[in-house]
């Protein structure tokens, strides 16, 4: 069934779109879902969406129509989230975050790799046969969602900025006040954990069935 | 000296974020030619990025103008 969002995209004038409650509600739901993936705090996510919608309404004259209305609103939300993450960073005791998670990362490295720096025999990556992560496979996406939520806060935040907000390395380093090598190590460990989680919870369990 | 798997896997992750130098490509290529687990790991890193993209699409995430 066609949603109000896809049906109305392009049919309404940008100003008219704001007076369509069904379209706006669907758009808001999608924006909140996206914002929650980034900030993991419902209140902050809703604030960011509210601010983005208000900014879109106030600056509707800047909407040129070159991109879809939804894409334009999402680009405003993306900027709001980046601002929010930057502000939040100032209020976070980074050293407290670092300590726990570095231990976490080192512990994972000790499990995966032997002292000589090569893979432990039992942890060597196996071929991911027939990933079967098509759109229709809800179970896979529930597993992926759970693995994503299992990432430590610090890993998750930088991984989301890189993979979801598609920010480049210099931009993330400037926002988060981290060095390039720190970012690279953090992204590496986030991917290691995600890979490990998917292998344990999906690929190997599928192979056993 | 032969690269360790810890170094190779980090480089296989970094490959997603930056362009590797010719020297890095060469030493990584030599390592993965002889190390099947690291070859698998490299494939899985690419797969992980594809999975993340599909996940984003499923969540109706649009971030590019």
From TrEMBL, chain A:
RNA polymerase sigma factor 70 region 4 type domain location: 144-194
Keyword field: DNA-binding, Sigma factor, Transcription, Transcription regulation
Biological process (GO), any one: DNA-templated transcription initiation
InterPro entries (alphabetical): RNA_pol_sigma-24-rel (IPR014289), RNA_pol_sigma-70-like (IPR039425), RNA_pol_sigma-70_dom (IPR014284), RNA_pol_sigma70_r2 (IPR007627), RNA_pol_sigma70_r4_t2 (IPR013249), RNA_pol_sigma_r2 (IPR013325), RNA_pol_sigma_r3/r4-like (IPR013324), WH-like_DNA-bd_sf (IPR036388)
Record GO terms (molecular function): DNA binding; sigma factor activity
The keyword NADP is annotated on this UniProt entry: no
Keyword Phosphoprotein: no
Domain RNA polymerase sigma-70 region: 25-90
Superkingdom of origin organism: Bacteria
Alphabetical list of PANTHER family matching this protein: RNA POLYMERASE ECF-TYPE SIGMA FACTO, RNA POLYMERASE SIGMA FACTOR HI_1459-RELATED
NCBIfam families, per the entry: PRK12544.1, Sig70_famx1, sigma70-ECF
Family per similarity comment: Belongs to the sigma-70 factor family. ECF subfamily.
Protein's UniProt name: RNA polymerase sigma-70 factor (ECF subfamily)
TrEMBL record, chain B:
Annotated Putative zinc-finger domain residues: 5-39
InterPro entries: Znf_put
Protein name (database record): Putative zinc finger protein
Organism: Marinomonas balearica
